[in-house]
C-alpha cells in the first residue's frame, strides 16, 4: 500500500544522494519538527515539511551551481523557485493519490532491481553494497524500510505516467521543418562598398546641420553623473619596498613549500579494480589479444572513465604497483597487479617529468611574496589605530598627514576604472555614499585599505553645444557619410536587380558557397547571416547590410534544400523526441491539474513561511 504522507520524498532523496555522489552535498536534511507537520495537501495526501524543505534546498543549490554564486531565500522567491517546487510536490501528491485509488503498484522484484541500480549504493566493484546503502541513507536521515517504500511509490507513479503518455508522439513534419530551417543552404555573392566609393566628399555641415545633430542625440552629449570624492588609501604594493627581507625566513618559506619547487616524476594513471583475480586475468587476456580496449573494460563494469581516474600520482603513491606502472610508456596497460583494493589493471595516460627550482632561482619570487605578505600584515595592524583616529574626528587630510596613507581626489563616474577605481570595494562604497557620511576604514581585495568622503555629486548634465561642437561635427560627418553610402548602395542595388552583374559595379566582390544559418562569416558585418536568410528572399533577390563603416550589396545566387545526411536525420529525430517529451510532460501536468481540482488542495502558508525563515 502507498503511504498517505510524504509524497515525493524519495525523489527528493535521490536528488540529495546525487549531490552527495558528486561532492556537492553536505547541506544535510532539514528537520522541521514541532507542531508543524505539513506544508499542504492534495485531497487526503499531505506533503510534510521536511519533504518541502529538502526539495527547496536541493533546487536552490542546483540554481546556485548554474549562476556561480549563493542566493538568499528572498532572491529565490523573486524568481519563483519556492512556488515551482511546491507546485511539483502538489503534482506528485495528486498522482500518488490517483495511483493508490486505482490500486497500481509494482512488485518486490521491481523495487529490488531499482535499488540495485542506484550508483550511490554501489561499492568499488560496481555492485550493490549493503554497508554503503545503510551509510548513505543514514547521512540523510533515512532508513531502508521507508526508502524502499518510497521507491515503490516512485515506480508506481511512473506506471501511471507511462500509461498517460503512451502514444504521445510528434509527426515527422515537425523534425522536417526544423531541419529545413537549420539546414537550408544559400549561395550568396556580395559587393562591398566603403566611403571611398562615394563620388564626392562629405560637405561642410551648416549650423542647422550641427544643431539638428546635437538636438537629435542628447544622450551622446550628456556628461554622466560625477561623484566627487576625497580618499586616503594604502596598499601592500605602496610599502612592500620598505620591508626588510630576512634571508633565513626566505629559506624557511622555500623549505616549507618544497613540494612546489621540487617535484618527482609523476604519471597520469587510471586504475581498474576487479573483484577476483580470475576476472582481472580474463580482462588482461582480452586486452592483450586486442579483443577489447581499456575503455571497453571500464564500460563493461558499468563505470565511467572518471571512476578509474587516479589523476597525477608519484611512484610512492602507488605502493607495490609503483615500479610496474612507472615502467609503462604513455597509453601502456599493465599486467594484473595486486593492490590493497584487490587485483587491478593500470593504464598510463601521460608522463610528467621531474622538475626542480633551486632556492636561488625561486628567491626573487619568494622575496616579492614575502614582502607583500609582510606589508599586508603591517596594514592589518594599522586598521584599529586608523579607526580610532577617524572616530576621534580626524579628517582624511589629517590622516594622510599623520600616517603612511596617501591622499587622492577623484571625480568618479560609471566609466572610471583606473587606480583605486579598479577595486570593487571602492566602487561599491562610492555608489552607496552620501554627502556628510562619516569616513571609515574599508579593506581592499589585495590586503590594502581606504577611507573616503563624498564631497559633492554633479548630476548628469547636457553639455552646451559650444563645449562639444567638435564631437557633434565629427558625429554628423559619420552619419552623413553613412547616409550618402546608403543612397549610393540603393542605386547600385537597383542596377543589380535590373540585371547588372555585381562584377560590373566596380566594387570588391566575393561569393560564399552553400552557407547555412549556422555559419559565421567573420569578414561580414554583424547580422549578415540573418539578413541574407530572410525567408522572403528567393534566388535572384538582392538586399543591403550596413555596418562597420560600409554597405554590403548581397545577391542571392541560389537557395538549396538541406543535405540528406545522417547529421540532419539525427537533428530531426532529436527535435521530434524533444517535442514529444515536452508534449508528454504537458499531458502529465494537465492530468495532475485535473486531479488537484477534483481532490482540492490546501496550502499551510504558516508552515511554508516558517521553513523559509529557517533556511540559510
Using only C-alpha atoms, the radius of gyration works out to 35 Å
Beta-strand percentage range: 15-25%
Measured as a percent range, the helix fraction is 40-55%
Q: How many domain modules?
A: 4
Structural class: alpha+beta
Number of helices: 23
> Major sheet, described briefly?
4 strands, antiparallel
Structure characterization notes:
The chain is α+β, with helices and mostly antiparallel strands and 616 residues long. It has four domains: 9-167 and 580-614, Triger factor/SurA peptide-binding fold (Orthogonal Bundle), CATH 1.10.4030; 185-218 and 469-560, Chitinase A, domain 3 (Roll); 226-241 and 372-459, Chitinase A, domain 3; 265-353, Chitinase A, domain 3 (Roll). It contains 23 helices and 19 strands. The chain has a four-stranded antiparallel beta sheet. It has a four-stranded antiparallel beta sheet with strand order 12-5-14-13. A four-stranded antiparallel beta sheet has the order 8-7-10-9. Helix 1 (9-21) crosses helix 7 (144-165), helix 4 packs across helix 7 (144-165) and helix 4 (81-102) crosses helix 22. The two termini are 36 Å apart.
